[in-house]
Specification:
Belongs to the NDRG family. This is Pollen-specific protein SF21. It holds the Pfam family Ndr. InterPro entries: AB_hydrolase_fold, NDRG. The protein has 15 helices and 8 strands. It is α/β, with parallel strands linked by helices and 341 residues long. The protein has one domain: 3-Layer(aba) Sandwich (Rossmann fold). An 8-stranded mixed sheet has the order 1-2-4-3-5-6-7-8, sandwiched between helices. The longest helix is centred in the first third of the chain and has 15 residues. The termini are far apart.
């Protein structure tokens, strides 16, 4: 008699987390782009915060199973790294000219042209959110279809950090300032409470950053222009996440006040710093689902249009973008929904 076994092998389709690396030549130098997913699907473009790349800025969101399923089943993800922030990046030559924030926004357009993308959604974190917002303001709309912005908060100037980076590189003080920028006090721990795993992982990744490369990005942001007038004219739908303990909380509120309230919403996440994608990624799931619902995107997906068609929705209910629907002041672990019978 042959061996018997109670085990059953089931082949389940799961989104792939393996990406393909591209180096794209732009008008302002080369840019590293990591592409995840099926390139026939609609495009989601990401841009990280200062001193980070997609591994240290969006990994938490994509390691959240429900969010990963929602995003990778509906989109092909194009992670754009700021110059010199890609994995294994060497120090940029001092002979290379300093880039401005406008140069970085122009690089976004060159990357989209390289991949032949007609319509995109964008997800940025702090400094990356500014670059993508600037891109949306400067290129309205991209190739005749709407742009859509998913945003964390605005960026503030820090001359002390700039000087430290220039003279001392990625020293211990710089790392502590950056971690304070990214995470809430609770996540960073104390003498009695250890750092959270996500903070420890980010600290290790900061060890790999080249100080002068980070300084160049910071200098571009320190010289950025005011885009308040552009925000008032921006018509792409915008979803802004901000942690209630973020050092940029007031900037996020200011940005929200300038956007058209008919097509924007603010989601405040409790017990969280500025990097919601890493510290509380699960809190983003329900607002993202509501946001994507207007474009026929679900988990699991039920796309009724060609993946290459523009992402303009047939209709989207204003209630989907209301603070009540989005869940203002989301709980850090779960969002409870009360149902009337």
């Amino acid at each position: 008699m042959g061996d018997s076994s109670d085990s059953v092998s089931i082949d389940m389709e799961t989104p792939s987390r393996s990406g393909k690396e591209y180096v794209v030549e732009t008008c302002s130098g080369y840019v590293s782009v990591s592409v995840y997913g099926d390139q026939d699907k609609p495009a989601l473009v990401t841009y990280p915060d200062l001193a980070l790349n997609h591994i240290s800025c969006f990994q938490g969101l994509f390691f959240c199973p429900e969010a990963c399923s929602l995003l990778l089943h509906n989109f092909c993800i194009y992670h754009i790294s700021p110059p010199g922030h890609e994995l294994g990046a060497a120090t940029i030559s001092p002979d290379d000219p300093l880039l401005s924030a406008d140069d970085l926004a122009d690089q976004i357009a060159d990357v989209l042209n390289y991949f032949g993308l007609d319509a995109v959604m964008c997800m940025g974190v702090t400094a990356g959110a500014y670059i993508l917002t600037l891109f949306a303001v400067c290129f309205p709309p991209w190739r005749g279809s709407q742009d859509f912005l998913l945003d964390d908060s605005k960026f503030c100037i820090d001359l002390v950090l700039s000087n430290l980076l220039y003279y001392y590189g990625m020293c211990g003080v710089v790392k502590e300032l950056l971690l304070k920028r990214f995470f809430s006090k609770e996540a960073r721990g104390s003498a009695q409470v250890p750092e959270s795993d996500v903070v420890q992982a980010c600290r290790r990744l900061l060890d790999e950053r080249q100080g002068l490369n980070v300084w160049r990005f910071l200098e571009a942001m320190n010289g950025r222009r005011d885009i308040s007038d552009g925000l008032r004219k921006l018509r792409c739908r915008s979803l802004i996440f901000v942690g209630e303990n973020s050092p940029f909380h007031s900037e996020a509120l200011d940005m929200t006040s300038k956007l058209d309230r008919r097509c924007s919403a603010l989601v405040e996440v409790q017990a969280c710093g500025s990097m919601v994608t890493e510290e509380q990624p699960h809190a983003m799931l329900i607002p993202l689902e509501y946001f994507f619902m207007g474009y026929g995107m679900y988990r699991p997906p039920r796309l009724s249009v060609s993946p290459r068609s523009p992402l303009s929705p047939i209709c989207i209910s204003p209630e989907l973008l209301s603070p009540e629907s989005m869940g203002l002041k989301l709980k850090p672990i779960k969002t409870r929904m009360s149902l009337e019978v």
